[in-house]
Amino acid sequence: MRVYCCLNQKGGVGKSTTTYNLGAGLALAGKKVLLIDLDPQANMTKFLGVSADNGSITDLLTGMKKAKDIIIRRSENLAVIPSSISLSGAEFKLFAEPGRELLLKEAMDGIKGFDYCLIDCPPSLGLLTVNALTWAKDIIIILQPEFAPLEGVANLVDTIRVVKQRLNKSIDISGVIITMYDSRIRLHKEVCEEVGRHFNNKVYATKISRRSVLAEAPSHGKTIFEYASKDAASKAFTELSQEFIDRSGKK
Ligand SMILES: Nc1ncnc2c1ncn2[C@@H]1O[C@H](COP(=O)(O)OP(=O)(O)OP(=O)(O)O)[C@@H](O)[C@H]1O
Ligand SMILES: [Mg+2]
User: Fold this and answer.
1) Structure confidence at residue 150 (pLDDT)
2) Which fold has domain 2-250?
3) Would you list the domain boundaries of the chain?
């Protein structure tokens, strides 16, 4: 199982929207996918229309439940570990635990049967994100093409460097996905060029446009493929999934 952290410490850039639809696209392409919601806001959990009544990532990190008992089968190829607001209190308590950076990695030990695991990280570089970075091998940065997109990324790159030195030598940025893109806006083109210069071939050729259906689908607890299968947004996520699979085979 290849484990990917989908992150950007900036809030509201489209991480959860991109992560769950990419997961759904990979599942439709025949891959076995596990989505983990690691954000106390539990947005991805709501987007997918699943509930944390039988246990959440909080129970997993606090050792109250085992991963296999809280994984929800959303469809044949798509499974989810949901989050809940209780995670924010738990993060605070877990801070006092020895080995607190290893909790996710240890809790997921032995979980098999998936090709990819995508972790929807919270918009911060706190303990939860560090847990994801300690377990995963790949990082996908999700960026919105706005003014100074690389400003916050410097902090992120610093955090990754520290995690790499102390906790996980294998971690690396493997991709950058641009979302809420509008080709008619000159700034968006310029920002994409800047991001391209900085990250070179790590930037995905497939960009996700700003489309209202992508904001509507979550309120119905549906993926973009379930909500608007004929829309250009579904086509874009199918292409993104294919590019993801191609890139994952090359590393
Ligand atoms: N490509 C898109 N087109 C239109 N709306 C989008 C798109 N991507 C995300 N949105 C909307 O933008 C808002 C923020 O998206 P999302 O929740 O995915 O961001 P996030 O980075 O996960 O936020 P947070 O940092 O709070 O976790 C949501 O209202 C979502 O519906
Ligand atoms: Mg989010």
Assistant:
1) 80
2) Rossmann fold (3.40.50)
3) 2-250
